[in-house]
Amino acid sequence: MQGWIIDSYPNYDSDSIVVWLWTEHGARRIEDSRFRPSFFMSAPPSELRSYRQRLEILDEIGEVRETRRRLNLGDEEPSPVLEIFPRHYRDLNDLAKTIDSNGGYYDHRLYNIDMRFSQRYFLHHDIFPLGLVDYSHGVWRMQEEQFALEYRLPPLRAALLDIAVDAPMGIPRLQDKLLGARLCEIDIGGSEGEILEKLNAALRDLDPDVILTDGGDSFLMPYLAKKSEALGIGLQLGREPQKLGEKKGRSYFTYGRIVYKPGQYLLKGRLHIDRGHFAYRESEMAGLGELSRLSTIVPQEQARLTPGTAFTAMQINRATRDGVLVMWKKNLPEFFKDAEQLIRADRGGFILEPEVGVHENIVELDYASLYPNIMVKFNLSMETLNCGCCADGGGQPVPGLGYHSCVKRLGLVPRVLRPLIDRKRYYKKLKKEPGPKQEIYRERDTILKWTLVTSFGFQGFRNARFGRIECHESINAHARDLLVRSMEIAEQHGYEVVHGIVDSLWLRPKANASGIDKLVEHINGAIGIPIDLEGVYKWVVFLPCKTTGVGALNRYYGLFQNGEMKLRGIELRKHDTSPFVNEAQKAMLDELSHANNVKEFVERLPRAVAVLQTFAQRLKDGKVPLQDLVLTKAVTRQLDEYTVMTSSVAALKQMKSRGYPIEPGEYIRFVITDGQSKNSEKKVKVADFIQGDEKPDVNEYLKLLCRAGETLLLPLGYTEDRLLEICRSDPPPSDPTPAENPHLKEISRRSGPGYMPTRH
Q1: What range defines the domain where residue 539 resides?
Q2: Which has the closest alpha carbon to 117: 90, 83, 98, 139?
Q3: Which residue did the predictor score with more confidence, 466 or 33?
């Protein structure tokens, strides 16, 4: 039997692994009861026999073996360990906790505990999801390489599932009445019970491989599960019966923000993909398939996980194949540092404050995947940093820190990253060439970009399986050194550095400057890491920090010579701005985009201000629909933890009073109706509760509008107060609407509030 692996999970009732294979004749279920998962325990060799005797009397343990494994990446030789086989699959985690607690959490160490059962099975048989495979009499044979650049995914049949709910409160609740459902193009109606029965029948008839939902994990699936239980009608959404019980979500802190993750509703044998999840939202099925193949995490699980989790899985896979165990509770202490060493080491990437204002003919150079390339080029990994084999001075020094990296053996992190970098370079090139697979290459390139970005952050993450803070420090040290060296080369070629940040340089050519191609060639040859020409600006505006007035590090907008606009850090790129303000800022940028140089840019400033006045007049005349004034804000804490009655807090109070608690990390959408009021019902109106007769607070929205105008024009002397004075004046003379800039339109489509994850 030949096909593609699309799903896998443990069957706890029969202690077996289930694998679903997509074939030309339909999906096939394979169950393997021969696979026995295990974990490992290390202790002093003299105590292993005693430990084994004590473990073998536990009812939860099926077998204990003495074997040898490498405990750490830096170990040359394997060490004696105990391999422990639970009697039943479901006993594994509880058994590990029992053993850990009996050792006082430090007498011995446990390994390979929290690996997915499907991942263990794939590694054991050397197979991977969405890979073409032959299966015969319990034997698996891959028909393609896991890291093949050209491959095809199975033509999975997808069906979009949606439901209609009677929501008298404005937002659907679990107890509200089910009015209907829609599967693919099939409309399903009737009583609630009939709808569930017909949905079951439609799924049997269509037999889709993938069910797509919008907000499936956060509302649709828990709603159907609760409705099915209340009516006593079994709902089989997967290819085999399963109970869709309530699954709790959780809030967690990552990369400086709170994120809410709803409970996961995974189906058996049929993939449930919520289109709001990151991997599918950013790269659709081609990108999700790429990440699933590389990480060996089945697609519907990978869709709900971050690229960083996929990168960790790749590291675990590589270490396991090398015979290295994965420590359960990593406790790797930081190198001892005195105060001076801490000051030198605890720094980020290089930053050069930009020259605030509008500039002409600026060249932007960007390193391609700088941090991942640094890890590969300088062999930075937890086991290669300050290695003992190069301690005599033969290692690769880390600039300014006194560390060194190994030059005798390649580390785990570079071994995992190198094929990812090569793949991204390959897809990045092909996505620019027209052809039937151009979109597929683009989606694969996108997901690899995010995976490489997170690979750096995980080196400093305290819970990362194979990370350590000194690697993080070393990567930054090399990055600072490389950027300074690149600046020196640019100055040798007659360029002046206007701005620099981590992996990018903005350069102004002097009269004697050499050609940009010659400069790029020199930097690439001297540094050894590819640097690319991002573009040459007709003009670019570096914006100031509104509190200090100094150049903001990553807030600018500019027009390339090819007519494309690049925006960073302004309202149009943010997720919390109302569509009305976005539209106004986009129209101002469109007006400015007709300027070909700084002189023309300055000449067009009055017309840009007139555009702002036009939008202000629409607001004052009451001609802006309420839906265009909706603000979307992230919730960062529980309601009772807020102390000031902001608009967001007022919206949260409204939600709570109507029975809709919002968790940290979720989003709240509302219109400001009276910004000065202390009454939550008067201050704002939650978007889902709008009746249509509400009046927005014109003054508050004028401030938001002029604040967006100030963002663009502050370097030219237009403050928020000055723009407010202009916009509150008499209506401006009529002015023809400027032509649409297609590049601005595309930027707005990609980054506008319509792409904000919201509560269903």
Answers
A1: 339-556
A2: 90
A3: 33
